[in-house]
Amino acid sequence: MAKVNISLDAALVVEVMVLAGVSNPQDAVELVVRDYIQRGHRTEARAEARDDARREVDVKPREVEG
After folding, report:
1. Tens digits of per-residue pLDDT, 49-61?
2. Is the residue at 6 inside a domain?
């Protein structure tokens, strides 16, 4: 996998390290990025499931009243 070097505020990285419980800054930032991506995928899956459910409701024929 290709690597990218970025500069971050030290206080931000230290806070991420404490929250993630990791002693390596690289690992801490990587965990945060991976978590962010996983949350995005879960959100997409929920939205897709909700859209599919709506389509199923719209497809069902309406019962005639009266």
Report:
1. 666 666 665 555 6
2. no
Q: Give the chain's domain count.
A: 1
H/E stretch holding 8 reads: none
> By the 8 A CB rule, do 42 and 55 touch?
no
pTM assigned to the model: 0.58
For 15-34, what is the mean pLDDT? 93
> Could you give the maximum distance between any two Cα atoms of the chain, in Å?
71
The encoded tokens of residue 1 equal 């996998």
Is residue 63, in this structure, part of any structural domain at all? no
Range of the domain at 46: 19-57
Residue whose pair of structure tokens reads 């995005």 in the numeric block? 40
